[in-house]
Automatic annotation (TrEMBL):
Belongs to the perilipin family. It is found in: Lipid droplet. This is PLIN3 protein. Coiled coil: none annotated.
Length: 111
């Protein structure tokens, strides 16, 4: 549910695009990133097989925690409408607000 928030989703997209672009542009960084990705995949696979029995046992508790977290995210989304905007919209809105404040300050100084 958190990944579906516009702000989070667009931020992840931006980071992913920057990561892919950096890997593509710099061969040395690409080899380091490829090795790191391979290591993360190996650790994830090994951990998943070891943790699976524990997850099965804890499944009802995880489901309850997930439901509680979901309700919390819903309330957070209501109180912070900013989370429903993309990063680009947040930046644009911020620029507009700053421009308006600077214009107001110029008017005050001029008068």
């Amino acid at each position: 549910q958190m990944a579906n928030l516009s702000l989070v989703s667009s931020a992840c997209d931006m980071v992913s695009t920057a990561y892919a672009s950096t890997k593509e542009s710099h061969p040395y960084i690409r080899s380091v990133c490829d090795a790191a990705e391979k290591g993360v995949r190996s650790v994830t696979e090994a951990t998943a097989s070891c943790v699976q029995p524990l997850l099965t046992t804890l499944e009802p508790h995880v489901a309850a925690g997930s439901e509680y977290a979901s309700k919390g995210l819903d309330k957070l989304g209501e109180k912070l409408p900013l989370l429903q905007k993309s990063v680009e919209q947040v930046i644009s809105d911020t620029k507009e607000q700053i421009s308006a404040r600077v214009a107001d300050a110029k008017d005050v100084v001029s008068s």
